[in-house]
Backbone:
């Protein structure tokens, strides 16, 4: 057992745990994107940043890759952490603004705008699909190619790989290319609509008519300017 | 094809068929063919037991490897800070115009490939152009033509004895 101090509390972590593991164990929430319990850690998205060390000499580290050691002092939600986290989300938003996962993160952490040039890509290079293919599906069909701003994920020679069994694991785990947010707002803003969603069926029926498991949250009944409309409707009634 | 396979096999064996020697093996292949043929990479992947995608990752990571056939002569124009302020971009433009290709491309007759580099470490003699490892210092637009001509000429000299 290793004693560490997390957000001022003395907690005990097991040998080999990362900061993220420990935080999870104690119910402290740290947002993640490139982390998945079934896969190896990658430390690519930098969303899980936390601040470690004592005040004049603190530094930011990614909690998913940082193993706990004796006497570690961690703060998971300092100003610096939150500011950096927002920046990371904003950057990812600029790359893949249509990803619902990233839109949701933005909404959750109060990122209201995107000041960077929108690239409209479908990949934030989190590497989840590569690890999924390799570690869980036993295939080695996809991987990173090139480097720097040209870095991308693809199959050898951009053709269907002989190793690919079309299992779909890569798409299943992708936070960017599958779930699309079709919010009504222009590219440069975060639509947030799904958080203030007002199912359209309630305009006509007494009850929710949604067949989705996640009633009213699937994102298909997003209305333009949801906030305003809700208020207006409340006025009518 | 068989002879080719044999050749690649010899490259691999030269490095004791070690996985760690992948880069050296790729360098040998690149040296032989001026690029990395897909077939060769497949063969290396099978022989060494490295997933093809990992080999591609390495091959696309380094600038010295190319998956497409490169020209006979490699023209590299320095775009580092020092060469840049002394007119590197103009020289590149001139090369692009003369060769009719963009930077990063290869002429249709596979004679010249054009590339840029960020500082060769000899800023004092900039703007620098390197062709096949020969450094041309203090270049300017007017010199571009003559540099290219030297290599065109070499071609012809090489060809003539064959024709005779
Ligand atoms: S979850 Fe830790 S860096 Fe992505
Ligand atoms: S900038 Fe060209 S050699 Fe340094």
Residues:
């Amino acid at each position: 057992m290793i004693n560490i101090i997390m957000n001022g509390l003395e907690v005990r972590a097991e040998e080999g745990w990362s900061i993220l593991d420990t935080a999870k164990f104690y119910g402290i929430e740290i947002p993640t994107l490139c982390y998945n319990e079934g896969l190896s850690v990658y430390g690519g998205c930098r969303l899980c940043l936390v601040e470690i060390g004592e005040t004049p000499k603190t530094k930011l580290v990614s909690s998913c890759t940082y193993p706990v050691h004796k006497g570690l002092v961690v703060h998971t939600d300092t100003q610096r952490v939150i500011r950096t986290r927002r920046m990371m989300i904003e950057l990812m938003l600029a790359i893949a603004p249509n990803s619902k996962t990233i839109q949701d993160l933005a909404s959750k952490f109060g990122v209201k705008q995107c000041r960077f040039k929108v690239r409209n890509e479908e990949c934030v290079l989190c590497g989840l699909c590569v690890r999924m293919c390799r570690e869980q599906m036993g295939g080695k069909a996809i991987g990173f190619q090139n480097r720097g701003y040209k870095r991308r994920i693809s199959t050898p020679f951009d053709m269907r790989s002989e190793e690919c069994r079309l299992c779909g694991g890569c798409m299943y785990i992708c936070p960017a290319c599958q779930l699309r947010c079709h919010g009504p707002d222009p590219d440069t803003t975060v639509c947030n609509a799904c958080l203030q969603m007002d199912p359209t069926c309630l305009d006509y029926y007494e009850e929710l008519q949604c067949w989705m498991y996640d009633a009213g949250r699937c994102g298909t009944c997003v209305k333009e300017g949801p906030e305003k409309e809700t208020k207006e409707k409340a006025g009518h009634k | 094809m068989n002879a080719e396979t044999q050749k690649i096999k010899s490259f691999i064996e030269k490095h004791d068929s070690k996985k760690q020697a992948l880069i050296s093996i790729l360098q040998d292949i690149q040296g032989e063919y001026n690029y990395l043929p897909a077939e060769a990479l497949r063969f290396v992947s099978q022989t060494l037991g490295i997933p093809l995608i990992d080999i591609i990752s390495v091959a696309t990571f380094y600038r010295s490897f190319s998956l497409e056939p490169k020209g006979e002569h490699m023209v590299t124009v320095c775009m580092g800070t020092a060469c840049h302020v002394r007119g590197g971009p103009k020289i590149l433009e001139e090369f692009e115009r003369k060769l009719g290709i963009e930077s990063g491309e290869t002429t249709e007759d596979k004679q010249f490939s054009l590339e840029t580099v960020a500082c060769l470490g000899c800023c004092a003699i900039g703007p620098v152009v390197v062709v096949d490892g020969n450094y041309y210092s203090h270049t300017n637009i007017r010199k571009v033509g003559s540099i290219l001509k030297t290599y065109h000429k070499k071609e012809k000299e090489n060809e003539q004895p064959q024709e005779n």
